[in-house]
Write a structure and sequence with these properties.
- By secondary structure, this protein is α/β, with parallel strands linked by helices.
- The chain contains 22 helices and 28 strands.
- It has three domains: about 5-30 and about 40-275, 3-Layer(aba) Sandwich (Rossmann fold); about 280-465, ANL, N-terminal domain (Rossmann fold, 3-Layer(aba) Sandwich), CATH 3.40.50.12780; about 470-650, ANL, C-terminal domain (GMP Synthetase, Chain A, domain 3, 2-Layer Sandwich), CATH 3.30.300.
- It is about 40% helix and about 20% strand.
- It has a five-stranded parallel sheet with strand order 4-3-5-6-7, sandwiched between helices. Strands 12-13-14-15-16 form a five-stranded mixed sheet, with helices on one face.
- Helix 4 (about 100-110) packs across helix 5.
- The longest helix is centred in the middle third of the chain and has 22 residues, at about 300-320.
């Protein structure tokens, strides 16, 4: 047991890290193509000066501080500094439009904001009249800020100078303040994605995050030698656990990419050993691989296909150390030299020891693809309210159709209506200023209602079917689980998003969003001209491409006794991409089903009325804040469905 194992707050852990791991790397950032590194001692000094500066400016225990921007060392330091003086950091999504940000700033009662750059400063200045409690805006990147002569807008460095002045007068202030913190104190507020309404502020304590992070580190044997890339939104609980909490507990280095656009390249340079990505990222990576292979020479395409078939047959068995013949091992080794190794290097996953995915279900085919390459990707299941971990897959019990067993110190039960409930040390304290929702989510015994429907398999693994509110029944009483079907559709690289319908209906139908990049490359090879997403999506050849994929999903569904009746009968390709700015998706790209059902009700009716065409006009939001409208006469296409016997024959 080390000294850190007994500490109950992140500020106390930071203080100990500055001594026991003083010269070891804590953070990196790529700036102008060069990686800059800060040791734990150097990061500690930066945080110390900023924390004391915040205190000198009036930030008191319990005060809230908004953090907005891409993953930057100074933004993580601002989070830590806020905690060091008893404040509560509130990271929010950097791509949120001004009015979305206004809700979080106002609701959280934040009095200070620390932001990345001029863009975020402008958003906060735009909403300041509606958020009068926000007194100070602090920026990291000074580019473009020379003409902002506002007394309440200041640089990160100027706050640190105030902190150093305070320390010159009271050298013991920082350590004394840290000592006053307790595990039961509120450590951070993280807002939910708001799929069904306004986001809720989840209050998590140090005990929630420290114990959960510590359990996760012990479970996976995480050490100070891990490497990880922080590229997911700081407002998301997964980033807070993996890039902040577990880094403090285990002492490993966290690297920040130069920009969102450079993440793939930076990933290859860092070569993380510990990696997390939601299913969308894994899907996009697979899409990029598929597009590259379409451009490759015929010989390379044949070699790739041959060895990927080899990997599909024996790769997972080798990863899980199961019996494989010598001939198969040698063949897989050759595949590793020619295909798998270069592919993993391209993906930035050559050194990955543990890869997690969560947030929503990942398509089984996508999951098996990565594991067949020898990448130890595992599913976890969790929520912001759980400090992330509810279940995890042990290395020897990884399956594509379940999310594993209860994580350490977690209890799980299934309610009579099929809803999953859990309780654990990570269970949140409360929703901020929302006692009613707190009581409806967490009962007096500490059990949390997840809102997800699931069941335990015979070997004790949890299988999540769908969101409980989304699970329905067809008119014949059989189960309808839209997310399961949508995930199978999104395995195809040319399908970016899918929304299925069928509750209280006779059959299942679907909206499709094509992937502009993947379908664009395919269209060029087919000599199909187009000038926009809308024009490409309406092409007859694109409809046929999507129809072929849907029919493959229909064939696959015949193998699932619970869901074989969920085959898709009709579909249409939407004239626009579903967009968070238009309210159709959350900032974490989760579908807002009620909103879509209301907005596109005329299209849903047309899918079931037997129409072959339907006119729709939709209001859209542009990046500069303007609004407009786009209209289209959408084609609706029938799809072949299969009996059980036909499915087996087709397979």
């Amino acid at each position: 047991m080390t000294a850190i194992d007994s500490l109950d707050t992140f500020p106390k852990i930071l203080l100990e890290r500055s001594k026991s791991s003083a010269k070891k790397p804590a953070m990196r950032e790529k700036d102008l193509g060069i990686w800059q590194t800060w040791t734990w001692q150097e990061a500690f000094q930066e945080i110390k000066a900023f924390a004391c500066g915040l205190s000198a400016m009036g930030l008191s225990p319990g005060d809230k501080l908004i953090i907005v921007g891409d993953n930057r060392p100074r933004l993580y330091w601002a989070m830590s500094a806020t905690q060091c003086v008893g404040g509560i950091p509130v990271p929010t999504y950097q791509d949120a439009v001004a009015q979305e940000m206004a809700y979080v700033v106002d609701h959280s009662d934040a009095i200070v904001a620390v932001v990345e750059d001029q863009e975020q400063v402008d958003k906060l200045l735009e909403i300041q009249q509606s958020c009068p409690q926000l007194k100070t805006i602090i920026y990291d990147d000074a580019r473009g800020m020379d003409d902002y002569d506002l007394p309440h807008v200041m640089s990160f460095e100027s706050v640190q100078e105030k902190g150093r002045e305070l320390l010159s007068q009271n050298a013991d202030f920082f350590e004394t303040t840290i000592d006053q913190g307790k595990g039961a104190d509120e450590a951070i507020m993280l807002y939910t994605s708001g799929t069904t309404g306004k986001p809720k502020g989840v209050m998590l304590t140090y005990d929630n995050m420290v114990i959960t992070a510590r359990n996760g580190c012990k479970l996976e044997n995480l050490t100070e030698n891990e490497e990880t890339l922080a590229y997911l939104p700081m407002a998301w609980v997964g980033d807070h656990l993996f890039s902040y909490a577990q880094s403090y507990i285990a002492g490993f280095c966290v690297s920040c990419p130069e920009s969102p656009a450079t993440v793939p390249h930076d990933l290859r340079e860092i070569g993380p050993t510990y990696y997390f990505a939601p299913p969308r990222v894994f899907e996009n990576l697979l899409t990029s691989v598929t597009i590259r292979m379409q451009d490759a020479a015929p010989v390379k395409q044949k070699v790739f296909k041959y060895f990927m078939d080899v990997a599909k047959n024996i790769g997972v068995r080798i990863l899980e150390d199961k019996p494989v013949s010598l001939k198969e091992r040698l063949l897989y080794k050759l595949g590793d030299i020619l295909v798998y190794g270069p592919l993993k290097n391209t993906l930035g996953m050559s050194r990955v020891r543990i890869a997690y995915t969560a947030g929503e279900a990942i398509g089984p085919e996508i999951f098996e693809f990565y594991r067949s390459l020898g990448i130890n990707i595992k599913q976890i299941y969790g929520q912001t309210e759980a400090s992330i971990f509810v279940t995890v897959q042990p290395d020897d019990q990884v399956r594509s159709d379940t999310v594993g067993i209860a994580a350490p110190d977690v209890e799980i039960t299934i309610a009579d209506n099929g809803e999953v409930l859990y309780r654990s040390p990570g269970v949140f304290k409360s929703y901020y200023k929302n006692e009613e929702s707190t009581k409806s989510t967490k009962n007096d015994e500490g059990w949390v209602y997840t809102g997800d429907a699931g069941f335990f398999t015979d070997d004790g693994h949890l299988r999540i079917i769908d969101r409980a509110k989304d699970v329905g029944k067809f008119s014949n009483g059989k189960l309808f689980a839209p997310k399961y079907i949508e995930n199978k559709l999104k395995f195809f690289p040319h399908i970016r998003e899918a929304v299925c319908f069928g509750n209280s209906r006779d059959t299942c139908t679907a909206f499709i969003n094509i992937d502009m990049e993947a379908v664009g490359v395919w269209a060029e090879k087919q000599n199909i001209p187009y000038a926009s997403y809308q024009e490409l999506a309406a092409k007859e050849q694109v409809y046929q491409l999507v129809q072929d994929s849907i029919e493959q999903v229909n064939r696959d569904l015949t193998d699932d006794s619970m869901l074989s009746h969920s085959q898709i009968f009709r579909f249409l390709i939407l004239h626009k991409e579903l967009d968070a700015d238009d309210g159709e998706l959350t900032r974490t790209r989760k579908v807002r089903r009620p909103f879509i059902a209301e907005r596109y009700g005329v299209l849903i009716d047309a899918l079931y009325d037997g129409k072959s065409q339907c006119f729709i006009e939709t209001e859209v939001s542009f990046e500069d804040g303007r609004t407009g409208a786009i209209s289209a006469d959408l084609h609706i296409q029938d799809v072949k469905t299969y009996s059980l016997e036909e499915g087996k024959t087709a397979a």
